[in-house]
Structures are given as C-alpha cells and as structure tokens.
Amino acid sequence: MSIAELTSIDFITPDGVPESVTSWVTEIAALTMPDHIVWCDGSQAEVDAFTHMMVASGTLTRLNAEYRPYSFLARSDPKDVARVESRTFICSEDPDDAGPTNNWCDPAEMRSTLDPLFLGSMRGRTMYVVPFSMGPLGSPLSRLGVQVTDSPYVACSMGIMTRMGSQALSLIGEDTKWVRAIHSVGAPLQAGQADVPWPSNDTKYISHFPETREIWSFGSAYGGNAILAKKAFALRIASVMAREEGWLAEHMLIIKITNPRGRVFHVAAAFPSACGKTNLAMLQSTIPGWTVETIGDDIAWMGRGTDGRLRAINPEAGFFGVAPGTGWKSNPTAMNTIWGNTIFTNVALRDDGDIWWEGMSDAVPRHLIDWEGKDWTPESGRPAAHPNSRFTVAAKQCPSISDDWEDPKGVVIDAIIFGGRRATNVPLVVEARDWEHGVYMGATISSERTAAAEGTVGELRRDPFAMMPFVGYNMADHWAHWLKIGAGLRTSGSVPRIFQVNWFRKGSDGSFLWPGFGENSRVLEWILERVDGQVAAKDSPIGLLPLEGALNVDGLDVSEDDLAELFAIDKDQWRGEADSTEEFFATFGERVPAAVHKQLALLREKLG
Ligand code: OXD
Ligand code: MN
Q: Domains of the chain (ranges plus CATH)?
C-alpha cells in the first residue's frame, strides 16, 4: 500500500468484516475523531508504507542497510521509556477480584475518567485498525483481538509481535469472541500543528476491563503500555479468560530440550521482567549432546490437552527483548536473530549507521549518538542505550526456533521452572516435592527490581509467578487456580515437575557465584535427568537438592567453596523468609488457599 493510498481509504471498511468489528470501530472513531482510518492487512507493502512514513516524520531512523538491512531506530520521549505499573488498572466490578496487588478502579468511574481523555484524542491523526491472533492462526488454543491505535509505530510493532492482518480478521465471525483494545498516544494535532517524533501524554492510563474483555490505553507508546496484545491481553485479560475456561496464561518462556539419548523435553519457565528469559530461551548448551531450541521468550498459554497432559503455546509471534546485556557472549542467538527486519527502540546509534548498547560487545565505540539523540563518548558517564531499550523482531528469524513452535496443539510441558534475581539465600536449583510445593515456590518468588518498569533498581520485590504486574485478577485466586489445574492433571497421571532456580546468587565478595548464560544448561541437565528418573536428590527444608557431585561442572571454573555456597541453606535466614512470606500472605486475607498456608507451615517445621 502506498502512502497516497493510505490516506485515501478513509473510513472504507474491507469486505466481509463482521458487524461486531465495524460497529465497534465506528464507535471508537466517533469518540476519538481520527482524520483517517486504515485497516491493517499485515502485508509487507503495508510495513513499507508505514516505515517510509515514519522515517519522513522523524519517528524512525533507517539504519545502515549494509549492517542492519531493513531495520530502524526509534527514540521515545524520555518520559515514556517503560511500563507504568502505577498507571495500570484492573477495573473489575468487585475490587476483591483485582486483589491487593493490582490498582483497582470501579469500571464506571474509569470509563468516566477515560471518556473525556479519549474524546477527540486522535484528531489530526490516523487510526490504524489492527486485527490479530494470539497463537497460531486457527489453533484451538489461540484467541483473537483487534487493537485500534493512533501510532503507526505501535501498528508496526503489533505486526511483528502477533499474527496480524487480514487472515486474523477473517477468523472473526459474527459469533466469535474477541478482545477489544483501544490505544491512543493522547496527543491530538490541531490543524497545521507540527507533530513530534514520539507523541505521548504525561497523563497515562493502562486500563483493563476483565468482565468485558476490553483494554483502554492512553498516553504512552512504549512497549507493554501500547503493544496491547502482549502484557495487557496475553497476560492480564487472558489470565481472567484462562481462569474461567480452565487454563493458564503465564509470564513464561518455553524451550525444547533434547538430551544425548534423543529424548525431547519441553520446559516452561517464569522469571520476573528483565531477568534473562530471552537469554534462557535462546541458550546455547555448553554440555555435549544437549540441545536447546526456542519456542517463546515471554508468555506461555497452557492447558490440559485431550491427552490429559499440560500443553503450551507461545501466543506471540515476535520478541520484544531487552537490548542492554544482549551480546555476542551472552546471547549470540539473539544477535543473529536481529540481523535485519528489526525495530530498535532507545538504543544508541553508531557513526556507521548501525546500533549499539551496553553489553553488546567488549569493544566500546569511541563515539555514539545516545538514546536521547545526544553525542556520547565512553567518558560521558551515562549509559548510551536506555537500560530498558528494546529490539522488536519476528520469532521466525531466530536461528534456534524450534520446528514445533507453531504446533496448534501446543507442546507437552515436562517441567516448570520458577526463578528470580536473588543475591542471597535461594540456591542455584531446588526441586519441589510435589505440585503444591511448586505452587508455593511460585507464590513466593521475589526478585531484585530491574529497569523494565518504573521503580528503584535493585530493591527486593515480591513477584509471585513473575505475574505481579500481569495477573488480571486476585493473585491469591491465581494460586488457587494453579492448585486446581494441578489436581486436574493428577487425574490423568501426568503432572509436570516444578523447580526453582537462581542464577544470581552472590558470594561474600559481591561477585556472582555461578557463571550463568550457556552454563545454565548444566542446571537444565540436572532438572531433566530428574524428570527422566536418572538421578536421585536429597531432601532439605526448602526442597530437593542435587546430591553431592550430581551437578555437571566438568570443565567449569567454579571452586568447591563457591559450589557449596550456591547450595547453602542458612536456616535463620530462611526462618526470616518464612516470616516475611507470612506477612505477604496476610495481605491477601482469607483468599490464600489452605494448601499454600500448609506449605509455609511445612517449611517452618522442616527448618526446626
Ligand atoms: C517484558 C516485561 O517486556 O516483562 O517482557 O517487561
Ligand atoms: Mn516479560
């Protein structure tokens, strides 16, 4: 589609669009008053037209095609750089359904707040209608949505992150249920008013209406605030759908692992934001005979298949990865994924027209244009790329993408891992005694805060199931739902094993005890040897630990002392953890399931 065509198809609806979609689009257009409406078809011609337009408007800079073909750099407004959890609302009818960890607002009150903000908010802009499927087109596990947005950057990002366009739209019939997502940057243009490269508004609302399956997002164009298919739909709204329909929508990567005997396993793993999920999803094994392939790096939808086993799909079609720390050493697979066709946001620009960020390479360029568009040298004393800068790229470009990543039936999950970023106490790996203990492990994840959301980096925060910012209902009910799913799986005799890991434990000198990255394959090896019944484990107050010598450290430079410290359990510290967990559970009152309380009592009993 050419730019001329883009602006000449105003208010023309493609043939065959169900009334439920057209009437909704008309209603939102009447409220937001865009100058034009474009129905996105998901074609390459459309991407070409959008990117040309955004280069002309200054939103995107085209990178040097010699190094980074068909790739672009976007610089956001410096005030619009991360998810805004304090402005994220769950507007359920009953405040107890949102629970104490979500910002709740009465739906009617939120609508009366939002209506005046959205009134005329797209004036002078184009409204893009973005139909999408979360999950492979037509899979019974997939769900459909339509986002309207006045940001072409967001429309393009949705094109990478979802199966977007005419095919998804054609799956919406008159009776199909689909999620309505409304997004406006909240920066209407008066006639003749010049635009800015990254329009946004200091007032921000990311509002979810779980009962009506709606998302209304105002004021931000950044990541999860604006690419509504991701956190807003695939986690917050989907977690509510999943609770009602008997499945799970989780903040988890999915990988396929093959052992030297040729047995294939699939693992889902939850880690808080910016704790290396993308690195683990693309891990290159350092141990002979073990291979790891990628299915997803951020979100898993899982449910009991007709075979009674837990099956998972990655509902996304792309990666929205944290750039800093992604490099040739830490994640060569990601570096090879982003060879081209990639949108980079808030990274630094090299003088040769390519991009750079902290941790990409050991060699630091002598001069860059930083994420704010300012000259930068290593002496500048500030990061060149924003700590939450990102790359947006199609999953199919990933060299380690697994051949079953789009299996419409989903892949069978053999093990579930919970992780966090903990400098102390939590061992490198520990296995849950059973599903209930695993649910307790998930419920008690805590992690040091990262740059993926606002807040003080490094501060310890509770992040149950790594879902604290993403669960669309009461967190304690989420634990109850997990227990119910486990009970269902038990009836078919196929319950995945659950493990907790911590790559981030530090020694007394403040340095990491474990090398991490590719070496994490050694931990996966132990986990899967457990699943395969090949190795025994020893009980401890907090769960099952590897027997002495069972973790494969061949050829690894980790001292005996460090290894001992990686697994050390300080009972006093753990009594403290138990006390703090009790306080945390108390914030949910009666809603904490008895089985979860029982696990806390068991921990205390075992600690003596
Ligand atoms: C993400 C996040 O972008 O968790 O995936 O913040
Ligand atoms: Mn995430």
A: 3-57+84-246 (3.40.449.10), 249-317+404-607 (3.90.228.20), 319-397 (2.170.8.10)
